[in-house]
């Protein structure tokens, strides 16, 4: 899927790992705790189901994934990261909508969820997600878990 003439969204490839990890580092400690680097590496090697990167001029400037509950009835938005220079320009919303559309196309998916932090939950709220639960210091000290559910049409 092309977001416009300059950006493209494509499936993640193992060769993208260094660029994805760099995006995480650019967003640490603003949006991610330092200890989450090991979590992302583990995810990319062991928990990856569907993951996508946003490219601009052959450079990965964003990424985000989809995982599924065991019964495949819940699609989970996972590991959204954007290069700081590309935040606030609508690119994150386009990547999110790309994945929501993908999940809406799957007959078995009945719910879409995301687990994020207090730092980013307003973005998801603006894009149709409602807050379900908050767990203080879940990700790391100062990084609370905000569990959210998509309220739009599935």
TrEMBL record:
Q: Name one GO molecular function term.
A: acyltransferase activity, transferring groups other than amino-acyl groups
Q: Which InterPro entries match?
A: Acyl_CoA_acyltransferase, GNAT_dom, YpeA/RimI_acetyltransf
Domain N-acetyltransferase per the UniProt entry, residue ranges: 7-153
Q: Does the keyword Acyltransferase apply?
A: yes
Q: Keyword set for this entry?
A: Acyltransferase, Transferase
Q: Which SUPFAM superfamilies match?
A: Acyl-CoA N-acyltransferases (Nat) (SSF55729)
- A Pfam family this chain is assigned to: Acetyltransf_1
Q: Is Acyltransferase one of the keywords?
A: yes
What's this protein's name?
GNAT family N-acetyltransferase
Species whose genome carries this gene: Nibribacter ruber
């Amino acid at each position: 899927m092309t977001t416009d003439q300059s950006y493209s969204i494509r499936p993640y490839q193992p060769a993208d790992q260094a660029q994805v990890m760099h995006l995480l580092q650019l967003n640490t400690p603003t949006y991610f705790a330092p200890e989450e680097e090991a979590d992302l590496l583990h995810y990319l090697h062991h928990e990856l189901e569907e993951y996508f990167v946003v490219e601009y001029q052959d450079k990965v400037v964003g990424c985000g994934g989809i995982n599924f509950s065991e019964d495949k009835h819940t699609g989970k938005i996972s590991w959204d990261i954007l290069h700081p220079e590309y935040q606030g320009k609508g690119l994150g919303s386009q990547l999110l909508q790309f994945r929501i559309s993908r999940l809406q196309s799957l007959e078995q998916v009945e719910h879409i969820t995301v687990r994020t932090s207090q730092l980013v939950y307003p973005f998801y709220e603006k894009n149709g997600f409602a807050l379900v639960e908050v767990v203080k210091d879940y990700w790391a000290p100062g990084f609370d878990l905000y569990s959210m559910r998509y309220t739009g049409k599935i």
